[in-house]
């Protein structure tokens, strides 16, 4: 416990344990996630044009080992909680880990030919100030869901960085758009269409003065 308490985030969680919890607003694009044909098509397209995805702990200096290549990337938050999943008929086949994860942000590097220096390595370097942000930002008053939200939610731990190299630059933006529509990550609000309910509040048939 003493070692754990040396972590600033652990100390903050302990300090605020009896207070209202910060929240992470998220909306799931259910229609797209329920579309088996669509999800398999996107999986196949990503496999056809990109390298296998790699996942690493998101540290301030991770950029040093990232490639000077174009591609797609995601910041993924994986909370500490794990389910102990038994090997049953339901879980047989592809591995189904017992962790719960949330894609926070999806981005791209090098989508256009004139993007000199816009590589996975260079893009990650730009996130350094968010990765090293003081985790107490999680308990500050909420801000509008805009770019500054990176400084809030990239303070979450444990945080992972996933990327795939896509050498065909002409495919990157299209694949990014499809991933955004599929997962609707909470920190990409400026790049996403609004998800609205199809059911509106009833309106009076006749207006009165």
Protein traits:
alpha+beta, 209 residues, four-stranded antiparallel beta sheet
- Residue ranges: pLDDT <50 for 5 or more in a row? 192-209
Determine the strand fraction and express it as a percent band: 5-15%
Strand/helix succession: HHHEEEHHHEH
What is the total domain count?
A: 1
Average pLDDT over all residues: 83
Main β-sheet description: 4 strands, antiparallel
Total helix count? 7
The main sheet orders its strands as 1-4-2-3
Using the CA coordinates, give the radius of gyration: 20 Å
Principal-axes shape call: globular
Number-wise, the strands total 4
Helical residue percent band: 25-40%
**Distance between the amino and carboxyl termini:** 67 Å
Structural class: alpha+beta
Task: Explain what you see.
By secondary structure, the chain is an alpha+beta fold. It has one domain (27-85, 97-191). Helices cover 27% and strands 12% of the residues. It contains 7 helices and 4 strands, in the order αααβββαααβα. The chain has helices at residues 8-15, 30-34, 36-49, 120-125, 128-131, 150-153, 169-183; strands at residues 54-57, 71-77, 102-109, 159-165. It has a 4-stranded antiparallel beta sheet with strand order 1-4-2-3. The longest helix has 15 residues, at 169-183. It starts with 7 loop residues before the first helix and ends in a 26-residue tail after the last helix. 21% of the residues are buried.
Structure, briefly:
With 209 residues, this protein is an alpha+beta fold. It has helices at 8-15, 30-34, 36-49, 120-125, 128-131, 150-153, 169-183, and strands at residues 54-57, 71-77, 102-109, 159-165.
């Amino acid at each position: 416990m003493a070692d754990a308490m040396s972590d600033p985030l652990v100390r903050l969680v302990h300090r605020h344990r009896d207070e209202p919890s910060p929240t992470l607003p998220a909306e799931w694009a259910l229609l797209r996630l329920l579309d088996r044909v669509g999800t398999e098509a996107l999986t196949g397209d990503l496999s056809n044009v990109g390298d296998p995805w790699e996942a690493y702990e998101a540290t301030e200096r991770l950029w040093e080992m990232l490639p000077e290549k174009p591609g797609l990337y995601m910041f993924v938050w994986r909370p500490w909680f794990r389910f102990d999943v038994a090997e049953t008929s339901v879980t047989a086949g592809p591995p189904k880990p017992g962790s719960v994860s949330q894609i926070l942000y999806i981005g791209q590097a090098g989508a256009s030919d004139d993007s000199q220096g816009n590589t996975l390595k260079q893009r990650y370097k730009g996130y350094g100030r968010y990765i090293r942000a003081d985790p107490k930002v999680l308990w500050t008053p909420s801000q509008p869901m805009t770019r500054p939200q990176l400084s809030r939610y990239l303070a979450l731990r444990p945080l992972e960085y996933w990327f795939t190299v896509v050498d065909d630059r002409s495919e990157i933006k299209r694949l990014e758009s499809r991933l955004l529509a599929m997962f609707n990550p909470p920190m990409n609000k400026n790049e996403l269409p609004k998800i609205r309910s199809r059911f509106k509040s009833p309106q009076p048939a006749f207006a009165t003065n």
